[in-house]
Design a protein that fits this description.
Layout lengths: L4 E2 L11 H12 L10 E2 L23 E3 L1 H14 L9 E3 L16 E7 L4 E7 L3 E5 L3 E7 L2 E6 L3 E4 L5 E5 L5 E7 L1 H6 L5 E2 L13 E2 L1 H6 L24 E2 L1 H10 L11 E4 L14 E7 L8 E3 L3 E7 L2 E5 L2 E5 L4 E4 L5 E5 L6 E7 L1 H6 L5 E4 L5 E3 L3
Parallel strand pairs: 9-14
Antiparallel strand pairs: 1-2, 3-22, 4-5, 5-12, 6-11, 6-13, 7-10, 7-12, 8-9, 8-11, 10-15, 16-17, 17-24, 18-25, 19-22, 19-24, 20-21, 20-23, 25-26
This protein binds fe (ii) ion.
Length: 385
């Protein structure tokens, strides 16, 4: 029986034997592919506007989780030493959230892999329905090619491969490169909407490729939108035509607004957008970057979206419903949906920078994104939705 169903037979008024009789009917009716309701729906969460009520234990729910660079990085080199890239077409491991019993996802909708590409490694061009991105941890060396645009990978870059875009990866430098792959794979899997196409050569004329830097040429000038070059990039729907968000630009954008007032639960935050629409880069996943100034502690907040964080700089901790996840550079962690949390920059002499990916756009698109924060008096207030 699904875990969201709870029995109601604790009611002493129920006549003895009712459940047994109903289950006998269920056994009889099973070949007809019907189920005679013998249990009530259990509430997965307390009502959103009753945050005073405790969360019931829920098997299968995402848990707060931390993956430390010091722990996971050696495994990248170990798998790279054992198996050629051809072994599984990737040298990577996938992150699992202990709340999901080994399923390959870190939140309900997000899959994360950590990849290493050795010098000379090359992953063939392909396309698929899941949206995907790369967050680059290495200083430089690798690249991703998307719809012919070659995106040289530098630390802190975000490189998107929206659904339906032809893309490939490689490393033509003399040192290994490491990056974080994020995909909405679990969502597409749930919807049974995944396909992968490897037949790049059959897709037509590939001779007129735009080369390096098209994202920057088209969309690298804030507030200026060219009329040229607006042809669809890939055959996906509703996703960003800008594929490469450079780490240096992201950091500069954060620094430019670090002295401006903003929501105290978000520290200094910027959102990545589809420059043609202002919407999130993907219809399913949204991306943002947060700068925590020295010693900064955010206000507590929670939302209906699950969020995966990559620590780009600094050290600190995130408190999630009584748990403290202490993080430093290149660590990865999850704040589950509905979980109250706040971020803390532990250093008095340096910034911390976190990149966040969440399924907020998906929830917004289906009318279920909500967020709350606690104000200075500890009162719960609705924000953003
Ligand atoms: Fe891919």
């Amino acid at each position: 029986m699904a875990t969201q169903i709870r029995p109601t037979l604790a009611d002493p008024e129920l006549p003895a034997g009712v459940l047994a009789e109903m289950e006998r009917l269920n056994d009889e009716a099973a070949p007809l592919n019907i189920w005679l309701r013998t249990q009530a729906n259990a509430t997965m969460h307390p009502p959103w506007h009753r945050p005073d009520l405790p969360e019931p234990p829920r098997p299968g729910r995402a848990l707060p989780c931390l993956w430390r660079w010091a722990d996971y990085e050696p495994y990248l080199h170990r798998i790279a030493a054992i198996a050629p890239l051809e072994f599984t077409e990737r040298q990577q491991f996938l992150l699992t959230n202990p709340g999901f019993g080994g399923a390959l996802k870190v939140t309900n909708s997000i899959r994360v892999a950590v990849s290493i590409y050795k010098p000379g490694d090359f992953a063939e061009t392909h396309r698929h329905t899941p949206n995907a991105s790369r967050t680059i941890l290495s200083d430089e060396g690798g690249y991703t090619t998307v719809e012919g645009e070659r995106c040289a990978a530098c630390r802190g870059d975000l490189i998107l491969t929206p659904n339906g875009t032809w893309h490939g990866h490689g490393n033509d430098s003399d040192a290994p490169v490491i990056w974080i792959d994020v995909l909405d794979w679990p969502l597409l899997e749930f919807l049974d909407a995944i396909w992968i196409d490897h037949d790049w050569n059959a897709s037509g004329d590939n001779s007129a490729l735009p080369g390096e830097g098209l994202s920057r040429r088209l969309y690298g000038h804030g507030g200026i939108m060219p009329r040229s070059g607006r042809a669809p990039r890939g055959d996906g729907v509703g996703n960003s035509p800008m594929f490469h968000y450079r780490g240096a630009d992201i950091r500069a954008a954060l620094d430019d607004v670090r002295d401006l007032d903003g929501p105290e639960w978000d520290a200094v935050s910027i959102d990545f957008t589809n420059p043609q629409t202002g919407a999130a880069p993907f219809t399913t996943l949204g991306y943002s970057a947060m700068l925590l100034r020295p010693g900064e502690v955010t206000a507590e907040s929670r939302s209906t979206a699950g969020t995966f964080f990559t620590v780009i700089a600094g050290e600190g901790h995130t408190e999630i419903e009584g748990r403290r996840l202490s993080w430093q550079e290149n660590d990865l962690f999850v704040v589950p949906n509905h979980a109250w949390h706040r971020h803390v920059n532990a250093r008095a002499d340096g910034d911390a920078v976190l990149y966040a990916v969440s399924d907020r756009p998906l929830l917004e698109n289906i009318g279920h994104y909500r967020r709350q924060a606690r104000d200075a008096q500890g009162r719960v207030v609705s924000v953003e939705a």
